[in-house]
Amino acid sequence: MKHIETFTTNKINKDIKIALLSDIHYHDRFSTRLLNKLTKQIKNSQPDYICLVGDIVDQVKYKKLDKLITFLSNISTIAPIICVLGNHDEKSGSLWTWKHEPNKHLIEALNSIKNLHLLEDATYQDGNLVFYGFNFSFNYYENCKESYEEFNYEANELKTKLNKSNYNIVLFHSPINIYDFIKNNPNHELAKSDLIFSGHMHNGILPFWLSYPLNKIFKTNRSIISPQKKLFPKYSQGRVYGKPEGYIFEAITKLSRSTGFYHLFNIFFFKNIEIIEIKRSNN
After folding, report:
1. Parallel, antiparallel, or unpaired for β 238-240 and 245-248?
2. Opening angle at CA 51, ends 36 and 205, nearest 5
3. Interhelix angle for 32-45 vs 66-76, to 10°?
4. Which domains does the chain have, with CATH numbers?
5. Which element (helix H / strand E) includes 17?
6. Among residues 50, 127, 173, 224, which one has the fewest Cβ atoms lying within 10 Å of its Cβ?
7. Cα angle 235-244-146, degrees, rounded to a multiple of 5
């Protein structure tokens, strides 16, 4: 089951296809079969770029990354990988007692892969198509519980400048505050975003077959629960309509291994990439 979402713009010279995935939550016993399935999906889609929007690993303690490196190395031969980190990529502990821990093993692994570009307040540019990625702190995700105030503070620490004449695709793991921030700060560099890719919300634990029609019919991104345990959160799943536009990926792993017993319920969810098409318009 492959889903295609289409956006249009007059800022690009040719149509572009992107394979989007997020929230792999890799761990020592991760399924090789699933990684092979994702590789096949990407290969069959023949994208121009692959975007990976954080939570690559479930937590820092998982240091045996051989299968993950093989997977990323294989798909990097299909198209350039543009990626950012998520909150799980830089923390360790358990569901209720997380602590910050820089993930040197993951960073070294990602930097060793040819044709993979890890963005930290940085851009990857191909003509007038620009990918911009940034990451926020453990403090934002865990101590401040993704408060708007902390988002505002950390967003104003970003240094990269964007050109409004380019088509700017922004990669940021969490969609929770970024759209409201852009609305409230029209002069900030992030307001030059054309399209935002994120993950993190795991579709609010809604299955895709239910979230997709809700998103399309009612143009809503609400679902059941957020990672911060808030009910019916905004920006939880699917397409984001407006300016900037966006897409929130449903997660490869809905329930991570760090949820304990609950991760067994992953068998009830599909695990597929998304295809994003950006079509050139003449308007």
Report:
1. antiparallel
2. 75
3. 10
4. 3-280 (3.60.21)
5. strand 16-21
6. 127
7. 40
